[in-house]
Amino acid sequence: MLSTITIVLAATTSLVSAIPTRTARDVPSVTDELTGVTHTVVAGRAGQLIFDPDNVVADIGDVIEWHYLPANHSVVQSTFDAPCLPLSDTSFFSGFFPIKEGQSDEVFQVVVKDDKPIWYYCAQGTHCSSGMLGAINQDFDSDKTLREFKELAKAAGPGVAPPEITGGERIPNPNPNSGV
Which helix (H) or strand (E) covers residue 12, if one does? Predict the structure, then answer.
């Protein structure tokens, strides 16, 4: 039994060390099969209230990584029908990134666990109702589109921030000279 645990931990450690954007855990509670693909999303590009890109197509095991530019942005998982409210207490929330100039020295990462659509928004003030929203794996055959999600948000009021960072990891920026 001990040798089986050692082999699993060795395999997990070598997988994690091959992908520098993940951090190793002593004993993983759930093993994520990572693909090695990281999708970068920029919050606040060119001083605008946008995520760029705002629509990502990702495989299970891909990492979504948000980079933050000035002003004060966050990312919160929501539902399509309630665009500026958190999905649940366990959905992802990055916390706020108050940036005055340049880019944050930290990023927020989430691993894609399934192929269901993921809807998200910025919880800073009226950023959500102003259109700072995004989607991962939108179902393009559905009437639940990113455009409709943004329309629903216009009437939603200010974004709501959960009480603590959850559902992802805040880590040092693995590429601080990227110029995003």
Answer: helix 2-18
User: pLDDT digits over 63-74, tens only?
Assistant: 999 999 999 999
What are the angstrom distances between the C-alpha of 147 and each of 8, 22, 80? 44, 32, 11
Whole-angstrom CA distances from 113 to 7, 44, 61, 158 are: 24, 26, 6, 28
Taking 3-state DSSP, the helix, strand and coil percentages for the chain, each rounded to the nearest 5, stand at 15, 25, 60
Cβ 43 vs Cβ 75: under 8 Å: yes
Domains of the chain listed by start with CATH number: 38-172 (2.60.40.420)
HSE of 38 in the Cβ direction (CA atoms, 13 Å)?
Answer: 17
pLDDT tens by residue, 131-172: 999 999 999 999 999 999 999 999 999 999 999 999 999 999
The answer for residues whose C-beta is within 8 angstroms of residue 140's C-beta and 6 or more apart is none
pTM comes to 0.81
113 close to 85: Cβ distance less than 8 angstroms:
no
